[in-house]
């Protein structure tokens, strides 16, 4: 069943074209109240009918590759879209995320999902026309393909036209982390199309390039790309005159990539700053139990449909808020190892929890064409509740952001929430100040409470540690 909100009234809604949906001539995405519609333009009528009538659409959904999609009857199509050949409705994805917010494990999971879907389609006489990572979203920890009209009929002898895009948006970022220990997130956010093969090749060592897979998928491809830049006409002529690519070779090529990527792991898997925080933190066991109890009780009172967990670390309190009744939790943390661990944990528990990477002092901006193609952090993170546990001091002390602004930003994300204040005498802050000057004379509980009271109502406060950490519940 497609997810719809009970309070939706289609009679008073006008479909609005998604501002980032402009590249594809076959169809566009429209927001219709709280529903997601996809149009099929006349140019793609036969393509869609092929996907539907050969049961590719239904089989792909049943196999878990494609997002749940239904075709609207003509009498249910909004009048503004009646000139379209077909109008489809997609399941609503609870939270839209982008590859530059994914951990290594999530990018790897999305890459394998794409390749496995390609192999599934190829057996049924179809392929994907492109390989953009933005066509994959996560529902909890489950990757799902969202662009139905990327499915096209397989033509005998054709090459994988999306191979270069797959390398730049999936393979190259994974190889960069696996071979050199360099995370992809900030680079990917700066270049929305991923990491070029020429750039990756320049970063790899001679030893890295001795691998046959790296040699074939990176070194030789970079050489081809450089030749194409130097002499595009000659490169195009060679491509046209090359031998056709058999279906068997196509399948083998995809399978080879699938096996290689499945074995990739981050190089920098050692200890990180906060990656072991869940096991080694400033709490004694009874204090930790009490804090968890307060989080569960908060969730039981509010039953949030969507909760944001800022500084989720390995997901302890994200899972606690789910235990208390939250339907869906989106967690954010700066530590890559912690996010990978949280993702693995959520996978094992089948939890409705999506952990993502975030530098909270520099959250994702609106990007792409006219700054509307990729939405900013704030637009995508309006929730019913927010957790900010042992989080505020990382911005106020670690990033020199005024405590008043930190509080205002956290409260702006949800109407209710829990915010933990960490006093300056706490061991964690003392470690942060050990090698730097203390330029924070105004960082104190009184100013924190004053800042909180200016933007919301303080519902309760509980001391949760011997050092004087306090957990505040607020209501906006």
Question: Strand-residue fraction?
Answer: 5-15%
Task: Give me the side-by-side strand order of the main sheet.
Answer: 12-11-10-13-14-16-15
Alpha-beta content class: alpha/beta
Write down the overall mean pLDDT.
Answer: 92
| CATH class bucket of the largest domain | Alpha Beta
* Major sheet attributes: 7 strands, mixed
CATH topology of the largest domain: Rossmann fold
The coarse silhouette is: globular
- The first-to-last residue Cα distance is 34 Å
How much is the radius of gyration in Å?
25 Å
How large is the count of helical segments?
17
Number of domains: 3
Q: Enumerate the spans where pLDDT stays under 50 for 5 or more consecutive residues.
A: 3-11
Count of strand segments: 16
Task: Supply the CATH superfamily name of the largest domain.
Answer: Vaccinia Virus protein VP39
| CATH architecture type of the largest domain | 3-Layer(aba) Sandwich
Q: Helix content range of the residues, please?
A: 25-40%
Could you please describe the fold and organization of this structure?
This protein is an alpha/beta fold and 476 residues long. The chain has three domains: 10-90, Phosphorylase Kinase, domain 1 (2-Layer Sandwich); 99-262; 285-475, Vaccinia Virus protein VP39 (Rossmann fold, 3-Layer(aba) Sandwich). Helices cover 39% and strands 15% of the residues. The chain is built from 17 helices and 16 strands. It has helices spanning 45-53, 56-62, 104-122, 163-180, 185-190, 197-203, 212-230, 232-241, 247-262, 285-302, 316-323, 336-349, 377-380, 392-396, 403-411, 427-433, 445-455, and strands spanning 16-17, 29-32, 35-40, 69-71, 86-90, 126-128, 136-139, 142-145, 151-153, 307-310, 329-333, 353-357, 385-388, 416-421, 457-463, 470-475. The strands form four sheets. A seven-stranded mixed β-sheet has the order 12-11-10-13-14-16-15, with helices on both faces. β10, α11 (316-323) and β11 form a beta-alpha-beta unit. α7 crosses α8. The longest helix has 19 residues, at 104-122. The chain is globular, with a radius of gyration of 25 Å. The two termini are 34 Å apart.
């Amino acid at each position: 069943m497609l997810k719809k909100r009970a309070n939706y009234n289609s009679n008073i809604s006008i479909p609005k074209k998604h501002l980032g949906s402009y590249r594809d001539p076959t169809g566009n995405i429209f927001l219709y109240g709280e529903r997601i519609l996809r149009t099929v333009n006349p140019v793609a009528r036969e393509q869609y009918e092929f996907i539907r009538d050969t049961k590719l659409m239904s089989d792909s959904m049943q196999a878990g590759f494609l997002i749940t999609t239904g075709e609207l009857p003509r009498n249910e199509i909004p009048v503004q879209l009646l000139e379209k050949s077909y109008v489809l409705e997609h399941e609503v994805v609870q939270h839209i995320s982008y590859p530059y917010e994914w951990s290594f494990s999530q990018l790897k999971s999305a890459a394998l999902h794409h390749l496995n879907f390609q192999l599934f389609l190829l057996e049924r006489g179809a392929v994907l026309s492109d390989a953009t990572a933005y066509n994959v979203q996560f529902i909890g920890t489950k990757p799902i393909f969202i662009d139905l009209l990327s499915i096209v009929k397989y033509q005998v002898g054709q090459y994988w036209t999306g191979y270069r895009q797959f390398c730049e948006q999936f393979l190259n970022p994974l190889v960069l982390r696996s071979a050199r220990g360099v995370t992809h997130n900030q680079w990917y956010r700066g270049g929305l199309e991923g990491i070029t093969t020429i750039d990756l090749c320049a970063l790899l060592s001679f030893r890295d390039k001795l691998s046959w897979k790296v040699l074939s998928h990176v070194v030789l491809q970079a050489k081809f790309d450089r030749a194409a830049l130097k002499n595009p006409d000659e490169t195009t002529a060679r491509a046209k005159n090359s031998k056709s690519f058999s279906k068997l070779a196509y399948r083998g090529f995809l399978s080879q990539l699938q096996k290689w990527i499945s074995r990739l792991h981050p190089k920098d898997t050692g200890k990180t700053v906060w990656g072991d925080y869940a096991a080694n933190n400033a709490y004694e066991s009874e204090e930790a139990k009490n804090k968890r109890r307060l989080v569960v009780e908060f969730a039981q009172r509010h039953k949030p449909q969507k909760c944001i967990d800022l500084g989720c670390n390995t997901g302890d309190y994200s899972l606690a808020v789910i235990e208390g009744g939250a339907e869906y939790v989106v967690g954010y943390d700066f530590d890559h190892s912690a996010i990978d661990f949280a993702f693995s944990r959520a996978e094992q528990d089948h939890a409705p929890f999506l952990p993502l990477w975030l530098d909270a002092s520099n959250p994702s901006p609106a990007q792409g064409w006219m700054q509307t193609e990729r939405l900013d952090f704030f637009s995508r993170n309006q929730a019913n509740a927010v957790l900010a546990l042992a989080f505020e001091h990382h911005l106020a002390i670690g990033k020199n952001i005024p405590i008043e602004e930190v509080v205002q930003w956290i409260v702006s994300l949800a109407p209710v929430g829990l915010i933990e204040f960490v006093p300056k005498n706490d061991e964690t802050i003392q470690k942060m100040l050990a090698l730097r000057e203390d330029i924070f004379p105004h960082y104190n509980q009184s100013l924190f409470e004053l800042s909180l009271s200016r933007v919301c109502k303080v519902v309760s406060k509980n001391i949760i540690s011997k050092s004087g950490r306090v957990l505040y519940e607020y209501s906006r």
